Amino acid sequence: MIQKKNNAVVFYAFYVASKVGKLGLTVTVDVHENGVEIVTGASATEVGDGLYKYQLAAGSVDANGEYTAVFKTADTTVDQQHIPALWATPAWVDNIDAAITSRAASGS
């Protein structure tokens, strides 16, 4: 996958209670960039049928590496209260035209 700097990243988590998606939860999210927490206790949005999402703002996506999110709920009826999600950005392409030109010039 190619990820461009300063584009928002969306994380998802699925909550289950008794083998069925759990609706109506209050879910918060902590996000780490390369092991450093950059978001604490942000609100997740319910998508539906037990699926929740959090969008990390474009301005926060500014480094190579790993962005990890941990979705959390205090609801004790769910099968798992903390659910991790990962978005990896192994390399940035700042200028796609330059990357294509460079590759063509090298004969790759």
Write structural notes for this entry.
The chain is built from 1 helix and 9 strands. It has one helix at 96-106, and strands spanning 9-14, 16-17, 20-21, 28-33, 36-43, 45-48, 51-56, 65-72, 82-89. Strands 5-4-8-9 form a 4-stranded antiparallel β-sheet, with no helix packed on it. Strands 1-7-6 form a 3-stranded antiparallel β-sheet, with no helix packed on it. Strand 4 and strand 5 (36-43) form a beta hairpin. The radius of gyration is 17 Å and the shape is elongated. It starts with 8 loop residues before the first strand and ends with a helix. The model has no long low-confidence stretch (mean pLDDT 86).
Task: Provide a short characterization of the protein structure.
With 108 residues, the protein is mainly β. Helix content is 10%, strand content 46%. The strands form three sheets. Strands 5-4-8-9 form a four-stranded antiparallel sheet, with no helix packed on it. It has a three-stranded antiparallel sheet with strand order 1-7-6, with no helix packed on it.
> What's the rounded overall pLDDT mean?
86
The structural class is mainly beta
Largest sheet: 4 strands, antiparallel
Secondary structure tally, helices? 1
Rg is: 17 Å
Shape: elongated
Pattern of helices and strands: EEEEEEEEEH
Strand order of the largest sheet: 5-4-8-9
Euclidean distance between termini CA atoms:
19 Å
Strand content: over 45%
* Uncertain residue segments: none
Residues in helix, %:
10-25%
| Count of extended strands | 9
